[in-house]
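Researcher: I'd like a structural prediction for the single chain below. Treat it as a standalone chain; there are no partners to consider.
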Amino acid sequence: MGAYEFQGLTSLYEIKYNEEFLLFPNPAYNRINIKVNRSFEERSIMLELLDESGRVMSTYLKTINAGLLETDLPGNLSPGIYLFRIKLKSENQTFKFVKN
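Model: Treating it as a single chain, here is the predicted structure.
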């Protein structure tokens, strides 16, 4: 099991990470939005939803639409703390959020 490094502070509304991505709302109910604040070569981005132990629960291939990635959370997702991993060609970024 690998270690995770988190940047930024948890907020009730949003989490900012190095100004490239903004995850909101936090806590989330049925949808997570990720605002992309920079241009990437790729138009599609791979997202992974992980539980606290790092187990991949869902994988999504999303298209950046006007700088925003909208992702519906699985209907059977229990309240708790989860991670979203954004996988790019050149880097990976991991975000922590709360599911209500």
